[in-house]
Amino acid sequence: MIKNFFKVAFRSLWRQKGYSFLNIFGLAIGMACSLLILLWIRDEEAVDNFHAKGNRLYSVYERQYYDGKIESGHFTPGVLPDEMKKVLPEVEMSSGFSGGERMTFQVGDKILKEDGAFAGADFFRMFSYPLLEGKAESALAAPVSMAISRKMAVAFFGSPGAAIGKTIRKENRRDLKVTAVFEDLPSVTSEKFDFIINWYAYLNDDDTWAKDWGNNGPHTYVLLRKDADAAAFDRQITHLLAKYNKFFSKSFYIELGIQRFGDMYLHSQIVNGKIEGGRIEYVRLFSLVAIFILCIACINFMNLTTARSVKRAKEIGIRKVVGAVRPALIRQFMSEAVLLAMISVVLALGIVLLALPAFNQLTGKGIVFPYASASFWLSLTGLVIVTGLISGSYPALFLSSFQPIRVLKGTLRFSPATAWFRRGLVVFQFMLSIVLIIGTIVVSEQVDYVQSVNLGYNRENLVYIPLDGDLVDKYNVFREEALLLPGVGAVSRASQSPTNIENGTLGVDWDGKDPNNTIMFTNTSAGYDFVKTMGLQLKEGREFSPAYGTDTVGYLLNEEAAKRIAYKDPIGQRLTFWGKKGTIIGVVRNFHFNSLHEPIRPLIIFYGEKEKWGNAIVRTKAGQTKAALKGLEALCRQLNPSFPFTYQFADEQYRNLYKSEEVVHGLANCFAGLAIFISCLGLLGLAMFTAEQRTKEFGIRKVLGAKAGTLFTLLSKDFLVLVLVAFVVATPLAGWAMHKWLQNFAYQISLQWWVFVMAGAMALMIALATVSFQAIRVAVANPVKSLRTE
After folding, report:
1. 279-283, 405-409, 512-516: least confident range
2. 3-class SS of residue 576
3. Do the beta carbons of residue 111 and residue 42 sit within 8 Å?
4. How far apart are CA 617 and CA 607, in angstroms?
């Protein structure tokens, strides 16, 4: 019987190839969108969740209470990992971790700059990064131990096996021994590194700041014992730092908490001390988008199937006369829907395979089609069944309800309820589409805003060059020579990238300070001409200058810091920073030194001409950047031959702060366009249905002298009303959703009325263009032929 159902279904589809193509193509597009989103969600959820001991792996985070607020993050004292393993029996293993370390390595004549990290001796025992050479227990056992990736091993030694026991020179200052080689990291890991150096090398490097309990920065990872209660452990360590940190007071203290390592990537936001939000919001958003688009495709199927119901009415009537019962007819039509869904999913898979490279480029992913994944194919089977059942449910119930006597007599008419239901489906389709259009416009406007907003400095023609190797001690020579190069306008330096300054401190004192006042000041060091090179604006005072020997204890404040310190006339006033007494020499206008997700914080800039790290900042002349870079490369090779010349543009670094928003922008554009396209297929189906129902009416109107324009208006206006209703419903929903999304930014656009009007106008124009094809066809049809159809 099932075979007979599908045979009849296939014949029915083949007889009406045009309708069948629209049905299959619409469903295939909807399924392809849903499958791409499903693959993206699978990839997002897989990030950091491949570790064998992942259910026991946790990252420690801090809740810092000060200045009447809570600042939270996965930053901890560098000595915390060892201490937790020592004093807490629930901790089986622990490891510090400091990623984002970019260093220069040399083997013989080969010099490479690689990205890596420092980690503790337990690191490879805790995490499932496959080792090609060496053992997890001894990979990072000694301060000179170093583990490198397959890529790095091949680059330096030709193969992973040849790397073991060999020496690599780090930063032209220290020799390290390769004790392990790990497989290149998979795409589903949030931490990216090509080398790992022993944790004690980090603690003992240059100075002892990382050993101070009052300093925070690196991560602390712990592996709990199998019998440990994570929730109880979380409560147990809340006040652990109280006996180690000497700076605690009633107005400043820190609590600890833990978060499962595999959850950090998606649940990265900690608001008011509680873990909530992060990339999981985008996963939820696009899960809804996938459901929306699939619903639109299913509604499209319903409308197109209904549109051709008149042509199948006699078939149904005859079937009922010869004994077909309604359940059998329902099964028949459901079989047709499932068959169509099966054909559609095959086409959808082809679309996915073709679109996957472009999709990966858009999202920055490395998604591969999961041919060997049983769960994926099971999900796909479920998608086919659910889509077939949903899309075929209404047509099956609707078509099987025809009365054979009325059908065969030619008096078939549809109830008002049936008409309203079909119109409701169209309204729902366009409501979802308009929500997506409004969302796309708002996201686009916000992304454009963050890229074009006045940051308080000029990020164009601004180049950062890392000060490493001999450039640290030869910075003054570099600066003098660089200023003579063609295309170079100004040169300065800073300990941190000015587009991402993170360091914070409570160690600031001034006259009249309230002892209970705990303000966290962001801070960075800078050299001469910093204000000039960055393009900052001085509100009062001056910047650092070699003409003033006292500038070694001089400080620049931004407006926010000056406001919090509250000197009436700050220039020349006393300021003590980290115990070093000095004076305020200038106040700069507020500028954004972090993402626009965050408000501008109080900033102190201290003298840093003699710092041993940081970046040289070079302002090139407009139109001469290429010539300037060529000269800077030659100069760096001359002064710093053991290190490769590297640089980064400030505007590129700034754009990197908004990668997630760029991805959302691109995906929203694509899916909103496809949703509108599928909705238009449904609208076309309803227009065709209406035209078939009103064939005789339009013929009589033409005979009585109705113009083509009048008939066009009669057929079009009803559909435009449906789109207007959809717009009215969609506007408040989209407004609420976009308002909530914009709250992620401290600096944001305001929702303007024209955004909603534009979305509505676009939907109306697209709908009108879709209906026009059928309306024009009806308006110019020969009335004689239309009257003969009855």
Report:
1. 405-409
2. strand
3. no
4. 15
pLDDT given for residue 431 in this prediction? 87
Give 452's contacts (C-beta < 8 A, 6+ positions apart): none
CA atoms within 13 A on the CB side of 586: 20
- Beta-carbon contacts of 325 under 8 Å, excluding residues fewer than 6 positions away, are none
Inter-residue contact 311 to 693 (CB < 8 Å): no
- 247-255: long-range pairs with CB below 8 Å, 24+: 247/214, 247/506, 249/518, 250/516, 251/66, 251/516, 251/517, 251/518, 252/64, 252/65, 252/66, 252/506, 252/518, 253/65, 254/62, 254/63, 254/64, 254/65, 255/62, 255/63, 255/65
Asked whether 469 and 619 are in contact (CB, 8 A), the reply is no
Q: Please give the structure tokens belonging to residue 48.
A: 């950091």
Secondary structure element (H or E) that encloses residue 773, with its range? helix 753-779
Tell me what the mean pLDDT of segment 670-695 comes to.
74
Cα angle: 394, vertex 398, 404; to 5 degrees: 160
- DSSP 3-state of 231: helix
The answer to whether 189 and 47 are in contact (CB under 8 A) is: yes
Q: Write out pLDDT tens, residues 481-499.
A: 999 999 999 999 999 888 8
Residues pairing with 91 in the sheet: 224
Nearest alpha-carbon partner for 28 in 678, 710, 755:
678
Contact status, residue 29 vs residue 296, Cβ threshold 8 Å: no
Q: Give residues with Cβ within 8 angstroms of 155, minimum separation 6.
A: 110, 112
Q: What angle do CA 683, 383, 49 make, to 5 degrees?
A: 125
| Confidence band of 187 (pLDDT split at 50, 70, 90) | confident
pLDDT at 458 over 60: yes
User: Residue 165 and residue 619: Cα distance in Å, rounded?
Assistant: 44
Tokens of 782: 């020969």
- How far is the CA of 232 from the CAs of 76, 228, 229, in angstroms? 20, 8, 5
* Residue among 583, 42, 94 at smallest CA distance from 366: 42
Distance CA 273, CA 261 (A): 17
Cα angle: 555, vertex 561, 565; to 5 degrees: 90
Asked if 435 and 730 count as a contact pair (C-beta separation under 8 A), the reply is: yes
Distance between CA atoms of residues 381 and 347, nearest Å: 14
Residue 87, C-beta contacts closer than 8 angstroms, at least 6 positions apart:
none
Amino acid type, 39: L
**Separation of alpha carbons 242 and 213, rounded Å:** 10
Reported confidence tier of residue 372, pLDDT bands at 50, 70, 90: confident
Position 106 scores a pLDDT of 93
